[in-house]
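Thread: flavin mononucleotide complex, take 2
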Amino acid sequence: MFKSFDPKELATNVLHDYLLSTIAPRPIAWASTVDNNGKVNLAPFSFFNVFGSNPPTLVFSPSNRVRDNTQKHTLLNAQQTGECVINIANYELAGQMSLTSGEFPDGVNEFKMANLEMTPSVKVKPPRVNAGPAQFECIVKQIIPTGTNAGAGNLIICEVVYVHLNENIFNEEDKIDPHLVDNIARMGKIWYTRAKEGLFQMPNPKGTKIIGFSRLPDHIRHSKYLTGSDLGRLAGVDYIPSPEELKAEEARLEMQLIFKQFGNDPRELEKQLHKLAKSLIEENKLEEAWRILLSFR
Ligand SMILES: Cc1cc2nc3c(=O)[nH]c(=O)nc-3n(C[C@H](O)[C@H](O)[C@H](O)COP(=O)(O)O)c2cc1C
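Output below.
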């Protein structure tokens, strides 16, 4: 038995979820663009693939928001300047990639929000992400809107004019090894897949005033135990817990045990708390992770 229907019978948001959950996994174009004034933008798009190699052609689609039919900065910038860089994110960059999908106001540079180094491109104005397995400098050949409704796509057809491949993805025979690339791809809802391991979940950054890397307290930002991706996930919240909430967390049994055992050894205490927070970040329990990290001052 199938659930069978005419797509016009469904609300767009429901259809959207059905499509994204079944047409998966999708690779992710992490697109950097600039506007006419040179302001930099970076955002991920999983409506993306390669469609030819001569000329090398990539297509991705920033769609009109299902919520209110507004258009995304990436589309507007690609229309204005006709250029972009498609960066490829791998597992190591997952948290930072996700952070750049936050709805930041016009003019916010998501490279800075996610603490990513901008490297000048060779042939186009948008900078590239100086990390990850590959970056493709592109000129926009054509933009095709698939409609004007909320949820309509805008196919940005790109020709690759310059390629950067990280040497660390090549094996001893000088071939690209998928284990070394460590690709990730998007599924439906908050699901992703890490090609070499399988499914994992990562919620989208939340709220309208996402704090970003710059507002992470120093002792968290410079943690020896949290990766850039962990920090990217932590930085995707729009509020930091209050002292009252921290008190409530201190009642937590695991925390009490850690404080009891390592209370006299600040280094070990920090290590244990950061490790506990890391495991909570991996389980997407971000608020708890925040409270634990802030309990160490
Ligand atoms: C992994 C991932 C994939 C995404 N794929 C798309 C996509 O294909 N099309 C789209 O319109 N939005 C997609 N989004 C949402 C955009 O990244 C988000 O709307 C972002 O704020 C757009 O930024 P901009 O306005 O700076 O272009 C995706 C988000 C994530 C986390």
